[in-house]
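Form 7-S
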Amino acid sequence: MKTYFSQNIKLLRKRKGRTQDELANYLGMFRSTLSGYENEVAKPSVEILNTFSEYFNIAIDTLIKIDLSALPESQISQLERGYDVYFKGNKIRVLASTVGIDNEENIELVPEKAKAGYTGGFADPEYIKVLPTFRLPFLSKEKKYRTFQISGDSMLPIPDGAYVTGEYVQNWHNIKSGRPYIVLTIDDGIVFKIIENNIDTKASLKLISLNTEYKPYNIEINKIREIWSFVNYISSDLPKANQPKDDLITIIKELKAEVKAIQTKLEFN
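Output:
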């Protein structure tokens, strides 16, 4: 089996802006020893693997098994920030993505007509590259975003047909309860809901609508394929104006009067 340890530690060292001399000195080894690891001349012991794992904050399995140079910038950045799901004993999720001619990542758009196909093609680079793409200059270049067109009224006041942008969530254990997320499920396709994180206790998530006419429901994590944390939404519909306070007070008084009239009528009958 091909391993990627040598090229990965070289890549990560350069991303940190460290020379071989600097890193070797920090780790307490000779520069020639580090050079041997980077050039596949020397094989690291378990202790050395653990040393590099702790320094880069990336699991040994990832350093050995995953070609980090093949990952998009957003995923490498997530790994460097400690979001390595191998630490949790899970399989790393490699995301299909696209980049522009400037080698920066696009935001792919999944419109309503493409949502059905996305359920089956979300991991297929050939499918992802035919999706429309755009950029939002105020979003971080170090994170991965995707936009989905939502349908229905379960998340009002966000209207039917709005375009919701989410940030890719690598480690689902970091999902914050009470926050909105876009979830790709096996059975229901793309859904946009408030999440209650019950992964540690029940291996599931509770999905909650803003529209209280829709009841919350639970979904097991093995029925989920992707999760994106809500960032913003775009819609051509203006939100409905709030009822003025005086109007609401008047309506409440009228309702109370009607209820009292009905009660009086029932007493006389």
